[in-house]
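Good morning,

Both structures are done.
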Amino acid sequence: MSQSFQEVGQLKGHSGGIYFLTHNEDSLVSGSGDGILASWDVESMKNLPRSVKVGEPIFSAWMDDALLLIGQDKGGIHVIDRKENKEIRHLKFHSKGVFDISFNPLTEHFYSLGGGGSLAVFDREEFRLLIQIPVAETKMRTSLISPNGKYLLTGGSDGWIHCFETAYFNELYALKAHDKGTYAMKWLEDGTLITGGRDAHLRFWNFSDDGLKLESEIAAHNFAIYDIAVLPDGRFATVSRDKIVKLWNVNDLSNPVRLISRGKTSHARSVNAVCWFNNTLATAGDDRLIKLWKLN
């Protein structure tokens, strides 16, 4: 852990808290409470002329070369043809905010999670709703597809993880993973599932179609963990409501590196999102800033 990160720049322009970060082939993408999905060049640190305004807070998005899907506060999903630069569908499968959108190349299906507690499955070709499953009575927050595409894991504000097979969407099992909320899930390189929650803990699981087995856990932050990013060198980063970004070595969880900007924190307010892109760690939160960190 001798190598650490230092702040190299800030991306400014959002007028509301930033709730998620993702990227496409050449730019970083952010979604905010100001209703704008913004694209950024991390080298020049400038906003690109590709911003999309939907008029409602944006909680999630998914994109490839052809399509952009944006999930917003009132349950709508805007489907944009990126080549034509125009909206081609406005889906309304959820009555409340859409907190996660993912795509399974194996089945050619999209999955969306809503604030009303349901999972929606729809096809890529016609955007038809194939099935909608009521999973919980609280917000569904995060989803994760298995590397082979055969399973979908969902996490929600009740702390439970549900596992579905993706052929017919039978639920295989469910378990309570975190107290009061499972907010983040990622795969490590060795196939370990790592989860973070409102209880500020990280938990490491052995995953199989028979169930999840808890391997280890650690009290990682002072408040809720909102996002996790896995770096190509095997390390991973976590961000939290406690305003701190931490960088972890999976082989030595006792000695995380805190990414400090000014004072004693990484951001001035809650850190909601983290993304690895173009050899840069990007973090964002309620202070309306995207901070860029690189190896010093």
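Second structure follows.
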Amino acid sequence: MRIAFCLNGPNEVNGPNVWLLRHLPLLRALGAQPEACYLSTEPDRPCAQRATLAVQGFRIRTARLARFTEESVQSIVAAFGDDLPDVFVPNYSVPAYFASRFLREAGVVTIGVLHSDDPYYHDILDVFVAGDERWRLSGVAAVSDYLMGL
């Protein structure tokens, strides 16, 4: 199973990115084929997290984030072309959550991740889990039992 996770950069040291550095190797050890979709306004700048994953042999796709969400969504979808993963995980990127709609319509399973209990993730739930059906994800995962109860 090919699973694409969004990685934001350059050099954003935060929980979701560190989570990827830890979990992608675990998923590969379990037989999955995880990869990263690197999202950045400056995709040519060096990024420590992207480099770490690349050295470990993970496939890295790149999407340039733009000034407007609509342009970023197009870039994210275009990063996959006709070579779609089985599962797409937008991680914590709003443009990637919006891109999920179009990947889901193309047959890709889309899974959101709740990384914390703050207004940002409550908004993710409101729009992409409980909101307009067009924008709903296939499913959602949480990093703790507490968050799963939200």
